[in-house]
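User: Assemble these into one structure.

Assistant: Restating your components, then the assembled model:
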Amino acid sequence: MPNTIPLNQEISLTVIKTACSNCNLRELCLPFGLSLEELERLDDLISTRRRIKRGDHLYRAGDAFDSIYAIRSGFFKTDVLLEDGRDQVTGFQMAGELLGLDGISTEHHTCNAIALEDSEICAIPFSRLESLSREIHNLQRHFHKVMSREIVRDHGVMMLLGTMRAEERLAAFLLNLSQRFTARGFSHAEFYLRMTREEIGSYLGLKLETVSRAFSKFQEEGYIAVQQKHIRILNVKSLKALMSHRS
Amino acid sequence: MPNTIPLNQEISLTVIKTACSNCNLRELCLPFGLSLEELERLDDLISTRRRIKRGDHLYRAGDAFDSIYAIRSGFFKTDVLLEDGRDQVTGFQMAGELLGLDGISTEHHTCNAIALEDSEICAIPFSRLESLSREIHNLQRHFHKVMSREIVRDHGVMMLLGTMRAEERLAAFLLNLSQRFTARGFSHAEFYLRMTREEIGSYLGLKLETVSRAFSKFQEEGYIAVQQKHIRILNVKSLKALMSHRS
DNA sequence: TTTTCCGGTTGACATGGATCAATCCGACGC
DNA sequence: GCGTCGGATTGATCCATGTCAACCGGAAAA
């Protein structure tokens, strides 16, 4: 808020930019449900902010784990690699979402996190987060919910990979993106994909050609309009219906 | 330990049976890494133990969440259901593993947990676990690791469902079971499957016929010996090799 | 402007796993 | 002992998706 800006413009800008209490994503992100006072304590802990250029890694599988990361702006993918070279995208993350939870288990990251566009993240030192969440019940509770939500999300992906056919998978994917963009105040019906067809395919367990064909099919049917990475959803109902009918 | 048993035999037996400090699974389960004193505080919290008969639900999707569950003995599966009737097994859990983490997120369970054999579980009231883990740093840390491990495990399943072919999936599945049985002091090479071919198929994103054929194939090749649900692993190396060669 | 390149689209064909169906086998009840 | 039943195996066929290949088109480089 303008009237909280101190006289020293130089410092104030930094403060504003790094503080959870001034972040418009706070209701989507870790600070959810915290009081003003609690928020300020969380501010103290988010010391580092980093820009990650499109294509760069935020972390790599094998890196020592010490922080989790909140996405302040931008778009990421995470992927895992098998020894034989196969890899799979395990998720796409957008502003307000957390990255790095996979590293807590072994204290080393188990996947790669790569920016799909120029992005900014807040690094949250994990041991300090644990300390603080021992003191702030709301923070502890919310953090647990975030981890659990990730588990539930993963179950959804398993469902998708295990039981759905190609077009159902793509419909589920588009509806999921639409819903998450909506939650961030963007149009639910129109958005740019930040990832390639190949990355979508990897996430959905399909080849890029199959993804491309499904896009074309949806366009023919009038469910969506596709222009490269620009997607307009024309008929949400049909997309939803696609998913809930056993073939 | 015998010398801690109080005079009243009646009570002592109950105490022994429900205490984490006397549980031989404690190194696999929530108490991992706790001091004796910390263990005793955890004991106070594990008040309820329940027997679940084969085929019965421990909880159902939609049930209000208030506890997580540690498996003391037995074997479970979890599955999720789609509105259209499709379902998928999301995991098989054995002694020492935790169930119910999916419920933290929404305070309602999002999957079903079903006993595949007569089992016993310890109910751990979640809000009390949170309180205690605010006081016991080791407990907090370990609980976070358990949740994170679940996320990493799920990534492994996604990998399996997204990139592996039928025989690779089954090999991965068998090796994973073998490894978990080993960790519990059972033979790594010989075990009984508690689940049907259909349940294995559901977990692996395959039809039961495909699972059956893969078992037969493995037997022909001399990798394993199959007799109904009794499995002997004859050639771990070949099974592992199967997984790491791009077809 | 032209060239190059990468990602995307589309077509033709191959194939792994699904589907449908018959049979087997062991457990259990009568 | 005999019949029944559920799970497992096996065979024949089908089809969704993978594979391979040609081509397109926009963006960046030359």
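Residues 137-163 of chain B form the longest helix (27 residues).
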